[in-house]
Specification:
The complex is a heterodimer of chains A (about 400) and B (about 425). With about 400 residues, chain A is of the alpha/beta class. Helices cover about 25% and strands about 25% of the residues of chain A. The termini of chain A are far apart. Classes of the chains: A alpha/beta (about 400), B alpha/beta (about 425).
Chain lengths: ~400, ~425
């Protein structure tokens, strides 16, 4: 009796399983730019259940599978914005304290925000989001896909880097007029560069003094800082002007953390140091005026060739956008860098694999290879020619039309 | 005898002058040889020659016959395209907008800073003619000027000193569209009254006020530039933020009888049928792609503005916005437009002859044709490719930009950076 009732149940289960298994998405590609600089010609890219299952010349096509003919098209990995400025969180600054290492954007991200749609329509399939710039130590970063129903669906990795902001930004608006007592409720501490460095030094020194104390007796904040000092979590330091970058180097010598330079308008001044210490740079937008809103206004030369200089030195770099350049213009940034002399393979690498490596998600993203997430872009032609269109976007194995 | 000798001397001199004069005048003629000439009006001429005299194009031909007495400039490995024309530029000065919303009497001539970044970056891109205009935030913004993109003082740069009046029918945070249109109507009505009053005035008064340097009544200062518009001396450049603004602006221009050019916001693609039907002159927003979100389904639609206008057969001029990385230069905009289905020829037209036609200066600039000003750029390859570089720019037959002598570019490329 039991066996009789079980058998059809098992059969049903099997049937459901077989039906549920997705048909593979088979793409016959003319050109595949892998992302690490290499090019494959006339290969099959097979995608199943969100992963790339095969990249190669010989693939036995089953009779009932449809083959997407992309013989005159170009496939690249999905672009990764190593730092995204997107309107997906209402308020990114937690202004209650200057040091808020545990802040994280994941639960305040609105997955239905328009900017996510703009991002994948521009070919950006993965973004790094972090709390704002008004805190000295503002929190950890989140790496998200740009398509999904909930933040958890979109999540690639959380608590990626600990963000630290140098320069005048954390002190913006904090100073009160001279002669007046601070009567305002929101009286925050750093008012200039010195104040910012003081807070960092105070926080890290405090923790150094607790080196003998076991983890169990520390606060979660202190555990995070311990991870930073032990080199487990890299610091992402936002520093624009040359003096802030120098400060980051000085603090590195003092506390011995691993760090990544973000913003880096003046990164070209420290090419030797960046190369020597193997510090990745997140640069962008490509055209920006140096010293804007800062004191060195005399030299307004465009720093657009920074990516070229970084590539020549072999310093790992990736692109970011800011408030003035929308997220879907990430490709345009790379195009401008190419126009000024960056090799096209280096530009693609900066948009894909190098960005993934900087974010520490290169096991899942960044190139067209077996086992990686199926985040792919299909271009009409050369992706670094402004007139060639993006035809389709694949995110987690699903095909989307960006032009609709 | 002596007297006769004097005659002969004079005669000889006259004869020599007559002989030499044509030579002397021909010495100013330049023949520019090129591998390809993109005329923008009559296709491409292979191995062509442009003859330039007194800053104007005397002849464009495919033949290889060059008069013996001209100076030859050999660009036989290079490509020549017309100097681009940007139809609306709110740059080239420090502040774009007046705080007072009704200032038709101001002119950008008083505002233009000839050493501004905008002019050099225009030259670098091959833009030879700029239409400088006040910004979009004022209702009656003032008069614009059509200038060449190089010169030491504004007077050197002028092509058309008073080229149009800026109007904005878009609402501002401080004022609704109702208020804006009511103010415009009131100003136009007042101007008409003033015109009637002037007609009735005595001839002496008219003579007195029209003499330069004489007394100008406050009324005259207030209304003259709108009088010029209503009498058709120049056209209005109307900024339309949305599709309904286009129709309102059109109705207003019909009522008061002036010619308009429509400066469209990205959403104005919705008025494309209206624009096609009325054959309006339009300038597109620098943002060539518009993302629209359905409020109910929350689906985002990508709208290819250029493609829509192109399919409707509307001629449009393109603009750039150097503050944004994806709309940085006019050539980049034309390249982007090619992605929307424009042929390279059409894309080139949208930054050369069409803006010139819209501005009413297609007899001066915009294409390489006989009788026009010799404003063109010399490229190392076919135009509208990313790898193509602008090597030389000529304005009025004079070499005004050389890539090899561009100091800023040199610094940028040779890493001459102070560490």
């Amino acid at each position: 009796m039991l066996r009789q009732s079980l058998l059809p149940l098992i059969a049903l289960c099997l049937f459901v399983c077989v039906c549920h298994a997705q048909h593979p998405l088979v793409m016959k590609a003319g050109t595949v730019l892998i992302g690490n600089g290499n090019v494959l010609k006339d290969v099959f890219v097979v995608v199943q259940e969100g992963k790339i299952t095969y990249v190669g010349k010989e693939y036995a096509i089953k009779p009932d599978t449809e083959v997407l003919d992309l013989t005159d098209k170009v496939i690249t990995p999905g672009f990764i914005a190593a730092n995204a400025h997107m309107n997906v969180v209402k308020q990114t600054n937690e202004e209650g304290k200057e040091v808020t290492p545990q802040m994280n954007l994941l639960y305040s991200v609105d997955p239905r925000a328009k900017d996510f749609d703009l991002a994948w329509r521009g070919g950006v399939t993965c973004v790094y989001l972090a709390p704002g710039n008004l805190n000295v130590i503002s929190g950890t970063g989140t790496v998200l896909k740009t398509k999904g129903k909930t933040p958890q669906d979109m999540l690639v990795q959380n608590h990626v880097h600990l963000k630290m902001v140098l320069g005048r930004e954390p002190g913006r608006g904090n100073a009160y007029p001279s002669g007046f007592e601070p009567i305002h409720l929101r009286n925050r501490r750093p008012q200039n560069r010195m104040g910012v460095v003081f807070i960092i030094r105070y926080t890290l020194t405090d923790l150094q003094n607790k080196s003998g104390i076991p983890d169990a007796e520390l606060t979660p904040d202190e555990i995070l800082f311990r991870q930073v000092l032990q080199g487990e979590t890299p610091l992402r330091i936002r520093a624009k002007s040359y003096m802030d970058i120098k400060t980051a180097f000085r603090l590195m010598e003092e506390f011995g953390y691993l760090w990544i330079l973000e913003g880096g308008v003046d990164a070209y001044r420290y090419l030797d140091e960046l190369e020597e210490n193997d510090i990745p740079v997140i640069y962008g937008p490509v055209y920006q005026k140096k010293g804007r809103g800062d004191f060195n206004r005399d030299n307004d030369m465009y720093m657009a060739r920074t990516p070229v200089l970084l590539a020549e030195r072999g310093i790992r770099f990736a692109f970011q956008n800011n408030a003035e350049s929308p997220i879907y213009a990430l490709r345009d940034e790379a195009i401008h860098a190419v126009e000024l002399g960056l090799a096209k393979d280096k530009a693609l690498k900066a948009l894909t694999l190098d960005a993934a490596r900087i974010l520490g998600v290169d096991n899942r993203l960044g190139s067209v290879a077996k086992g990686k997430d199926a985040d792919l872009l299909v271009f009409e032609g050369d992706p670094f020619e402004p007139s060639s269109n993006l035809l389709s976007v694949v995110i987690d194995g699903k095909l989307f039309d960006p032009n609709k | 005898m002596r007297r006769r000798f004097g005659y002969r001397k004079v005669l000889t001199f006259c004869l020599m002058v007559l002989l030499v004069y044509p030579l002397a005048s021909h010495a100013q003629t330049i023949a520019v040889k090129a591998k390809k000439i993109y005329t923008a009006s009559s296709g491409v001429i292979e191995n062509g020659i442009i003859l330039i005299q007194d800053g104007k194009i005397q002849e464009v031909s495919a033949g290889s016959e060059i008069p013996w007495n001209v100076e030859v400039v050999d660009y036989s490995q290079k490509v020549i395209v017309p100097g681009m024309v940007e139809a609306h530029v709110a740059r080239g000065y420090d502040v774009a907008n007046e705080t007072n919303p009704l200032t038709p009497f101001v002119t950008v001539l008083d505002n233009i800073d000839t050493s501004h970044d905008a002019f050099l970056s225009a030259l670098k891109d091959g833009v030879a003619t700029l239409h400088i205009m006040p910004g979009n935030n004022t209702i009656l913004g003032g008069k614009g000027a059509l200038v060449k993109s190089t010169g030491l003082v504004v007077e050197d740069m002028l092509l058309v000193p008073e080229s149009g009046l800026k109007i904005s029918v878009a609402g501002t945070p401080a004022q609704t569209r109702m208020g804006v249109l009511a103010q415009l109507r009131r100003y136009f009505n007042e101007t008409k009254e003033y015109m009637e009053k002037r007609k009735k005035g005595t001839q002496e008064e008219e003579k007195m006020v029209s003499t330069p340097g004489s007394f100008r009544s406050p009324e005259r200062v207030k209304y003259d530039s709108v009088v010029d518009l209503l009498e058709g001396r120049y056209q209005a450049f109307v900024y339309c933020q949305g599709p309904s603004d286009v129709i309102r602006a059109y109705n207003l221009s019909e009522i008061y009888g002036y010619a308009s050019v429509y400066l469209l916001g990205p959403e104005c693609y919705k008025a494309a049928d209206f624009i096609a039907e009325k054959k309006l002159n339009v300038i597109l927003d620098p943002e060539l792609v518009y993302f629209e979100r359905d409020p109910i389904t929350e689906e985002v639609k990508k709208i290819d503005v250029v493609g829509i206008f192109h399919k409707k057969g509307i001629d449009f001029a393109l603009l750039s916005d150097p503050n944004k990385v994806h709309t940085r230069s006019l050539s980049y905009q034309a390249m982007k437009a090619m992605g929307s289905g424009l042929s390279p020829e059409d894309a080139l037209k949208a930054v050369t002859i069409i803006p010139a036609r819209i501005l009413g200066v297609d007899h001066l600039v915009g294409s390489i044709d006989k009788g026009k000003l010799a404003s063109f750029s010399v490229l190392d390859d076919d135009p509208l490719k990313l790898s193509t570089k602008v090597e030389f720019v000529y304005i009025d037959g004079k070499l005004v930009y050389e890539r090899t002598k561009d100091e800023e570019l040199k610094k940028l490329m040779e890493e001459k950076i102070i560490k």
